[in-house]
Here is the input.
Amino acid sequence: MLTEAKFRATIVEMLCRAETKLPKDVVRALKQSKIREKNPITKLQFDCMLKNLELARKLGAPICQDTGTFTFFIRLGSKLKLNFDLKKSINKAVDQATREVPLRANIVDPFTRKNTGTNVGIGQPSVHLELVPGKKLSVDLLVKGAGAENWSRFFMLRPADGEKAIERAVLLTLVEAGGQPCPPTIVGVGVGGSAEITPMLAKRALLRPLTSPNPDRRLAKLERRIMQAANGLDIGPMGLGGRTTVLGVHVEKAACHIASLPVAIALQCWAARRGRARLINGRLQVEVPR
Here is the structure.
């Protein structure tokens, strides 16, 4: 049986890895983007990013001073028996990782601005639980700094506006954001659902590897179209111009009301930190990043 101590230790390990190493698909995309660029200033930005990653990996230090906020997506099998509270264990793991990695304490009261010092507070970290058949257990982690999080956007479009309006909303967001979310970004787009569901679709989209287009052909085509248009904006890495404004665009959808077309946009900075752990033969193992 998976014990609380083992579960917590795996979450701490995943947090440590996610803060000090990027997934292979992101590193590969950064290297490929550097090759495509012609401007020496743009290439220098990619050199700095890649050097940053190398030092973080060697030193076991966070990639960025903004170690972000944490969103956990858990899929729990309905037949898997656990004798501990997942949410409480995750809170303990975040507190422990904050001290041990160490991570910057980012969580404050929204009114008093008093820092909790632990990266744990009301509603933080955010934990979303989905029940699935069997005895499965997987934990996905999304780490987001404020530079990218502050440019999250939500639109209520007219249903008749269609895909062109979705594309315009994304491009408008990218133009307004400029270099502030630390591009090249990954763009998560949630379409459909409701004011509650759509932003979570956009965030969940950021967990998909860059090498995995949406299996829905229509959404995959929309992803490619938005990415091509975004990379023609000449915002470039860190807003200094260039051919690479986004590393990828991921679109997810949900059914919605007949009179609504909600669209949410979530940007992830170039330091696209994420993690994944999965229960394998009774042991929770970190699979991403390696």
Notes: The two ends are 25 Å apart (CA to CA).
